[in-house]
Write a structure and sequence with these properties.
single chain; 9% helix; Porin; 1 helix; 8-stranded antiparallel barrel
């Protein structure tokens, strides 16, 4: 195991131990763990030439699968800072296409108690992968979403996951529109 991996694991372990007293107590403060899944639609375009991995300039698909997981800290009843991993996947002819996003996000709830609106703002990196070729180089990405917490720990939302990965020194613009349902433990 590399030194970097050991340092990251040690930091995560210390973070979990230090927040375990307030974890999963029903308050949004302390350790939080959440996930969401839903459906998505996407569009990818390449700044010059066709997208080699799927053979056309513009790719549009409906009915993809969206999933997201996050872990972090709630630092008030209304705000959480989280690390996010998200993915949208599609089947295009014989290719399994996925957009993979990693970032740091901020959840803001507009009420201290259940039953209110929330927003999610996140910046990070995004990759494009078909499984048939090497994934693209990561590029700048973002995830912006909003929704409604309809029950304590449960929410529905919609948003946009977008990024600009690179393939062979050419930028690819991709946008995923997502609708999801999720839960969070705090």
């Amino acid at each position: 195991m590399s030194r970097f991996t050991l340092v990251v694991l040690a930091l995560v372990f210390c973070l979990i131990l230090s927040s375990s007293a307030s974890a999963f107590d029903g308050d949004r403060r302390g350790f939080v763990l959440g996930s969401a899944s839903g459906i998505s639609a996407y569009m990818s375009t390449k700044s010059e030439g066709p997208i080699n991995t799927i053979g056309r300039d513009i790719a549009k698909e409906l009915g993809g699968v969206f999933s997201m997981g996050y872990v972090g800290l709630g630092f008030s009843e209304r705000d959480m800072l989280v690390g996010i991993a998200a993915s949208s996947g599609y089947v295009d002819k014989a290719l399994d296409i996925s957009h993979v996003y990693y970032g740091v996000g901020w959840f803001h709830y507009f009420r201290d108690t259940k039953g209110g609106m929330f927003t999610l703002l996140s910046v990070g990196t995004e990759q494009f992968d078909t499984g048939a070729t090497d994934p693209t180089d990561p590029g700048f990405g973002y995830l912006v979403a909003g929704g409604w917490e309809f029950s304590w720990h449960w929410h529905v939302g919609a948003g946009v996951m977008a990024g600009k990965p690179r393939e062979d020194a050419v930028d690819i613009d991709q946008i995923d529109v997502v609708v999801f349902i999720g839960g969070v433990l705090f």
